[in-house]
From TrEMBL:
The lineage of its organism: Bacteria, Pseudomonadati, Pseudomonadota, Betaproteobacteria, Burkholderiales. The keyword S-adenosyl-L-methionine does not apply. It comes from Melaminivora alkalimesophila. Residues 109-288 form the D-isomer specific 2-hydroxyacid dehydrogenase NAD-binding domain. PANTHER family: 2-HYDROXYACID DEHYDROGENASE-RELATED (PTHR10996), GLYOXYLATE_HYDROXYPYRUVATE REDUCTASE B (PTHR10996:SF283). Belongs to the D-isomer specific 2-hydroxyacid dehydrogenase family. Keywords: NAD, Oxidoreductase. This is Gluconate 2-dehydrogenase.
Length: 326
């Protein structure tokens, strides 16, 4: 008997086909965003699942899914996993590290550039037919090259952004992280470790790339925004909830910082109405890893995790703290 797998969202048909050669697969081809109860119902008789970041795997769900042994997330972030509950239930969780690092860093840097140089605001102006003549200060923004890049959260993606800033744009790179990097990694990224306070005070462009946890909830709120330079920009490609979006909308409106670039939001796909009202913010719908090649690599790695787990008894990229093996 083949193990039974649920694919919780629509993904590449060729990846689903590959899964079908190993498993009995139920896939959400209609791409409906199931609620918790519906997800639990569909998972109740499954041995494994391929999820995206939007299905919550917690004690309540696990109690309803006694056969479940592995959940393969098609995302590097796994804040949708209750790691302790999965460990207790003996369920392995996997994520997709490494395959999206450079692609996500490219997008983070694109948001830094678009935010500093006011690209979407300028495009809206042009599309609205308001471009009549040249003006010396029309969409004059902030310098990127040679400025100070701040990175909060210095994992693989943070390091890849640091390299782009230091080597490509001649930026001074400062970072803060729970733990300091090894000296050779700091040297390779040309990044200097500073306190969070100094990072906030000194960054011209601050990029958030830290995982969302209880400790990082509202890591950037009104107090932190107040410490930033009034000319600074803030970019969030990490997770909604790391920034207090209401406080950010106020700070942008009152020009207490210059601008923000946001790919993730508290309560997404809803966006705080205050952010939709201000012009000095670039908004994208959680697409930092979205290139065709990288999304295929993520789906393939999630599938490989399921196959390796059921064939060889061990997942390829298990999330620390979840059960490790069959
Ligand atoms: C996307 O947000 C991811 O975690 O991969
Ligand atoms: C994860 O968040 C990473 O930086 O790889």
């Amino acid at each position: 008997n083949k193990p039974r797998i649920l694919v919780a969202r629509r993904i590449f048909p060729e990846v689903v086909e590959r899964l079908r050669t190993h498993f009995e697969v139920q896939s959400n081809d209609e791409d409906v965003a199931w609620g918790a109860a519906e997800l639990a119902e569909r998972l109740a008789d499954k041995d494994g699942a391929l999820t995206t970041g939007s299905q919550r795997i917690d004690a309540q769900l696990l109690a309803a899914c006694p056969r479940l042994k592995i959940v393969a997330n098609m995302a590097v972030g796994y804040n949708n996993f209750d790691v302790d509950a999965m460990s207790e239930a003996g369920v392995v969780g996997t994520n997709t590290p490494d395959v999206l690092t450079e692609t996500t860093a490219d997008f983070g840097f694109a948001l830094v550039l678009a935010t500093a140089r006011r690209m979407t605001e300028a495009e809206h102006y042009l599309r609205a037919g308001r471009w009549q003549h040249w003006s010396y200060d029309m969409f004059a923004g902030a310098e990127v090259h040679g400025s100070t890049l701040g990175i909060l959260g210095m994992g693989r993606i943070g390091q890849a952004i640091a390299r782009r800033g230091a080597h490509g744009f001649g930026m001074r790179v400062l970072y803060h992280n729970r733990s300091r990097l090894a000296p050779e990694v700091e040297a390779e990224c040309r990044a200097a470790y500073v306190s969070k306070e100094d990072l906030l005070a000194q960054a011209d462009h601050l990029v958030l790339v830290l995982p969302y946890t209880a400790e990082s909830h509202h890591a950037i709120g009104a107090a932190e925004l107040a410490r930033m330079k009034p000319t600074a920009t803030l970019v969030n490609i990490a997770r909604g909830g790391i920034v207090d979006d209401a406080a950010l909308a106020r700070a942008l409106k009152e020009r207490r910082i210059a601008a923000a670039g946001l790919d993730v939001f508290e309560g997404e796909p809803s966006v705080h109405p205050g952010l939709l009202e201000v012009p000095n913010v670039v908004l994208t719908p959680h697409i930092a890893s979205a290139t065709v090649a990288t999304r295929l690599a993520m789906a393939s790695l999630a599938a490989d995790n399921l196959i390796a787990f059921f064939k060889e008894g061990r997942a390829l990229t298990p999330v620390p703290g979840t059960a490790a093996t069959t």
